[in-house]
Automatic annotation (TrEMBL):
Region of interest (Disordered), residue spans: 448-467
E.C. numbers: 3.1.3.1
Binding-site positions, Mg(2+): D66, H179, T181, E340
Membrane topology category: Lipid-anchor; GPI-anchor
Similarity comment: family membership: Belongs to the alkaline phosphatase family.
Note describing how the cofactor binds: Binds 1 Mg(2+) ion. Binds 2 Zn(2+) ions.
Biological source species: Halocaridina rubra (Hawaiian red shrimp)
SUPFAM superfamilies: Alkaline phosphatase-like (SSF53649)
Catalytic reaction(s) noted: a phosphate monoester + H2O = an alcohol + phosphate
Binding, Zn(2+) 2: D66, D345, D386, H387, H469
Name this polypeptide is given: Alkaline phosphatase
Lineage: Eukaryota, Metazoa, Ecdysozoa, Arthropoda, Crustacea
Amino acid sequence: MRSLRLLVWMVMVGWISAETVFPSPQRDEENEADYWYDLAKQEIEEALQKPKLTNIAKNVILFLGDGMGITVSTAGRILKGQKKGNSGEEEFLVWERFPNVGLMKTYNVDKQVSDSAGTATAFLCGAKANYYTLGVTGKVKYNDCKASLDDENRLTSIADWAQKAGKETGVVTTAQVTHATPAGLYAKTPSRKWQCDTKVMQFGEDAMGCKDIARQLVEDEPGRNLKVIMGGGRQEMGAQKIEPEKRKCVRTDGVDLVKQWMNDKAAQGKTSAYATTTRELKAINPEDTDYIMGLFGEIHVPYEVDRDKSLDGTPHIKDMVEVALKRLQKSDNGFFLLVEGGRIDHGMHYGMAKRALEELVAMDEAVQLALEMVNLEETLIVVTADHSHVMTINGYPDRGNNILGIVTETEDISDGLPFTTLMFTNGQGYNYSWNGKEVVRRNLTGVDTTDKDFESPAGVPTFDGSETHGGEDVAAFALGPMAHLFHRVHEQSYVAHVMGYAACIGPYQDCDRPVKVPHNIYDTIKDEVREGLKSGSSANNFSVISIFLIATVQITSFFQC
């Protein structure tokens, strides 16, 4: 406790800087071969007893870290550990302890490196699509309204599948609720940019018959049936008036879609609640509310590093998840929930690693909360990303070097200048010039590279906020019924199919698997599992989960004999 107070004090007085090297509590143990041998033996034993839960998933939760490629995850993992005062490298993100993992190929039908709309269509609708299109097949090109209206080219999503099976559905995001990932649940459009009527109108007759994404959310199925909608986007929904020149996508039709949404629920004889602050969100009683909408930003939800943490400010993503789960768990038939850490991507696009990685750590907290709230024996949880970014972890920094800091060992660097551990292939952090003899770069000596607005160095210049995505595979981690179906390199569209198969919905509604193994077999260990999740480290939590799942599969095998 004393060391924790010291750490907090050091942060407050600014003693944790780019040059800070965090301690490694395991350093002495790591010098012994037995430490690594014992660690490996433990993991082998866990792998040999790897559970396969084959009962039907009553509930499915998909956590999507936008732009959370493997490099981004690694950096976020280290930051998480360093925020605890450790060296960071030995840390685990919550989902990295899940027993099943696969790699997803992220390309679009027409692009080697994907965007978030085509990828959302893949992992939510089960079929790959073209760049910038949502909820439609590869026959629909970007901005082709006519083709997108053809029923043969329109896809159904995991939200459609769940609703038709009698399950309740919801979405939580830190981006706009009309942004690419959440829109993949409900929208069918040839352009992810068509979030409001203004963008559609710009195409004149070529866009006749096409509806903007915000209207689809409120007026069409499955959007209007979502029980929980939380994120940003008051502008796109017409709930906040602003001068059009200050924003690219402002409603000009005069429609307040939030009021329309509330009136629609009232006409159905249902109760609804709308929140714009933490105070208003906490005032909602999910137990007696049918529909919940929370719009916590004019555009996106503020970054975690900027968020007003007062009751009159913006809720943490885990606060939104908590309310969403309390509401959806009322369903006797189960639920599907999409949770997106949307601003990881935005921080990456601006080359501001601090902003992005703090968003990732916040999502880690939300996943931990979900694990504590749900019934693990009947809930499939998947954590994945839509695409990666062009950030790299480079140099040979010492163990425990601040992940947001600089590498001072420059013997192999021709100009002898320090450089950051995190750098980008391209981005707005390009800072090179010609001095008449050679190309020179910015000297980072004395620069606070841990500042939230610091732009990491980049090799190729791009316009403001337009660092590109990366094209490598992303990981998918899974826990719960049928999680073992993630087992190798897959197409990204496979994600939707695993979720559908696990829950016996959509294309997989006709299944003959047991709903669950006899419930009484869990009674003796459930309380211990819950207690283990509520206390201790992430590593300890997942030791408990592993024991629980191993016991489950062993008993399941007994009943199948």
